[in-house]
Specification:
With 108 residues, this protein is of the alpha+beta class. It has a domain of 66 residues. The protein contains 2 helices and 5 strands. The protein has a 5-stranded mixed sheet, covered by helices on one side. Helix 1 runs antiparallel to helix 2. The two termini are 24 Å apart.
């Protein structure tokens, strides 16, 4: 199962997210849930890097991704991208069940 946790403040400003695990929806190389999650997360990180000036750290290896914004304030573009990522992952969770992906939030 893929476990995704979004970290946000009391105003719902997303500060980062952590992703762990594999969906195991299908065989390796044909797992559409894992592919969808990977496409959404990698595109979000690449978009923040390319289209904004916000600084972040990102650790990525098989089945694990940690993203953290470096400044206390981030641009509205970055927030839009992160909230869009969260929405997309929640849609995958709804369509494919919490057996394969779980999306949660934690206030920090």
């Amino acid at each position: 199962m893929i476990k995704v946790t979004f970290f946000h403040d009391s105003n719902d400003v997303i500060k980062g997210f952590k992703l762990n695990g594999h969906a195991e929806y299908g065989e390796y190389g044909k797992d559409i849930v894992c592919s969808a999650v990977s496409a959404l997360t990698v595109n979000t990180v690449n978009s923040i890097e390319h289209f904004t000036k916000d600084k972040f750290s990102c650790k990525n290896k098989s089945g694990h991704l940690e993203f953290e914004l470096k400044s206390s304030a981030s641009s509205s573009d970055t927030q839009l991208l992160l909230h869009s990522l969260k929405l997309g992952l929640q849609a995958i969770e709804k369509d494919y069940s919490t057996e394969y992906i779980s999306v949660t939030s934690k206030e920090v």
